[in-house]
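Recall from the previous lesson that a structure prediction takes nothing but the amino acid sequence as input. Here we apply that procedure to acylphosphatase from Pigmentiphaga litoralis. The sequence below is the only information supplied.
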Amino acid sequence: MKKIDPHTPVETLKVHVTGRVQGVGYRLATVRRAHLIGARGWVRNNDDGSVEALVQGTPDQVDQMLEWLRQGPPGARVIDLTTETQFSDRRYEKFEQN
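The prediction returns the following tokens.
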């Protein structure tokens, strides 16, 4: 995956998704979508049945990921999605499942 130019504006958001998002391939589908879009970061299941992700990329890439995360893969039913802006100098190299 091509590195983001250090001069390109990058947004980083922490995303929390609730609903029927575990046991439906949500994380794997999220990784695939991120690779398709070119976003970086990670996604993981939480013990409470929710999914958490850190999405990093250009504003357009982040917007595309948020749009997709609100729907998820077939079988998922997203009830709520919240975001929190993260301020970090770290640039992720890829998007992965934790």
